[in-house]
Specification:
Layout (H helix, E strand, L loop, with lengths): L2 H21 L3 H18 L8 H21 L20 H4 L5
Helix pairs in contact: 1-2
Length: 102
């Protein structure tokens, strides 16, 4: 088996492992296998298109959308913003705050 053929097989293996890791929310393992694929693609000189290119483009559009909505929120008056409920401002019920007498 020649080296080029072996590199292409390893690229296919790395791609399968990366997709599998991503499908199981194993983001670090996805990054590991995706990096191996990129490295093998570079040294094999196969110049295959990145199999995650469409996913990256979708993520970029999502980030852009989030940034736009946040910039719109920052111009709203403070009275329209909602704040999270914390323990210091949470309503207290009598049942939970009064000692039990049995």
């Amino acid at each position: 088996m020649d080296t080029q053929h072996r590199l292409l097989e390893e690229m296919e293996h790395a791609e399968r492992k990366a997709w599998d890791a991503l499908s199981r929310y194993k983001f670090q393992m996805f990054g590991y296998w995706a990096a191996i694929w990129v490295h093998l693609n570079r040294i094999s000189r196969a110049r295959r298109p990145n199999p995650w290119g469409a996913t990256v483009q979708r993520a970029r559009r999502r980030v852009s959308s989030i940034q736009k909505s946040r910039s719109l929120q920052s111009v709203q008056p403070a009275t329209q913003r909602t704040f999270p409920l914390t323990l210091s401002n949470a309503p207290h019920s009598r049942a939970s705050s009064s000692p039990s007498t049995a």
